[in-house]
Write a structure and sequence with these properties.
8-stranded antiparallel barrel; 334 residues; rod-shaped; Porin
Length: 334
């Protein structure tokens, strides 16, 4: 009776081993669909992308169905993360949502079972190579964006860090405003032409100005102000703030008419040129649009011309300083 007992013990071990191996083999085949997840920002920016990827991968039979896929946005596109069942993973940068499906197919594609000599029940392994380290996208304020060279080569693109932002634009503004200071008030209407190179501003402004002493009964003084301006624009979206500074030349001319006792009329022509300093801060609404509007604060300071005795009677002194507001519209390519 000793021999049958040994056979019974061996048969028991065989049955137990078969029962343990079968569930393990079935577990490897339990992957029915690729798990696809995405950050909320992806669904907000591309509402149908998550469902489109899940539906497309669900219809494929030539990919590794045990993989996990995660999508997250970055400043210049999308970041694609793939994790296989055996723990291997890879991260790729994609320039647009149209590149997600081709990128996934390239990473998850496995050899067709018909190409093998025998059909094995062991799940095929993905051809996904070990992931190369990928640098995270830089903060949004940085003007350039550099991706890991390995991930960029996968997309057939040159590194973005090789491109330098050299945006060039030109605008023409029409506006008017009012100022007050040093006992006088003024109103003005003018035009400003600007050239914009990478948010640096340079240009020229000409405006017609009227100076007046309130409640004095004096005739307002007219003048032409010519200004060379330079500055910088802050802001890359809907709103932009321009800081401007430059020298101004005030040009005045006057004709005094005097009648002599003998009835003769004498005309005296007087001209005056006064230097001043101009400064302004303007808020532009629609800073990156062809047509935009602006509102701002501005001021000017300089000599009044009161020491010029030759023209003191014909041209009263100008205010030493003035502050005021301006508003208007801008057209051009910022």
């Amino acid at each position: 009776m000793q021999l049958p007992r040994s056979f019974a013990r061996a048969a028991g071990w065989v049955i137990l081993g078969t029962a343990c191996v079968h569930p393990a083999a079935g577990a490897s085949e339990a992957c029915e669909a690729v798990v696809v997840s995405a950050d909320p920002a992806v669904s907000t920016r591309w509402p149908d992308l998550h469902e489109r990827v899940r539906r497309s991968l669900g219809a494929r039979r030539d990919i590794d169905r045990c993989a996990r896929v995660h999508l997250r946005p970055n400043r210049d596109g999308l970041t694609l993360e793939v994790i296989l069942q055996d723990g291997r993973s890879a991260t790729r940068w994609l320039p647009s949502s149209e590149d997600v499906l081709p990128g996934l197919e390239a990473l998850l594609l496995v050899p067709s079972p018909s190409s093998s000599p025998s059909r094995s029940r062991v799940p095929p392994r993905s051809t996904l190579p070990p992931a190369a380290p990928v640098a995270k996208p830089p903060p949004a304020k940085q003007p350039t964006h550099r991706e890991d060279p390995a991930s960029v080569r996968d997309q057939g693109l040159a590194p973005e860090g090789a491109r330098v932002d050299r945006r060039v634009g030109a605008t023409l503004s029409l506006g008017g405003g009012a100022r007050a200071g040093d006992g006088q008030v003024s109103s003005n209407l003018g035009a400003m032409a600007l050239v914009i190179v990478s948010d640096w501003l340079a240009g020229f402004e000409a405006r017609a100005t009227s100076y007046e002493v309130p409640m004095s009964g004096h005739i307002p003084q007219s003048a032409v102000e010519l200004t060379a301006v330079g500055g910088h624009r802050f802001g890359n979206g809907m709103f932009g703030v321009d800081l401007l500074l430059g020298p101004t030349l005030v040009v005045q001319q006057d004709v005094a008419v005097r009648e002599e006792r003998n009835g003769r009329v004498d005309h005296t022509h007087t001209s005056r040129f006064l230097p001043r300093v101009f400064a302004a801060s303007r808020l532009t609404i629609g800073a990156r649009s062809i047509l935009s509007g602006f509102v701002g604060l501005e001021g000017a300071a300089g000599p009044s011309g009161a020491s010029d005795q030759d023209v003191a009677t014909a041209l009263p002194p100008l205010p030493v300083w003035m502050l005021g507001f301006v508003l208007g519209a801008t057209v051009g390519m910022p």
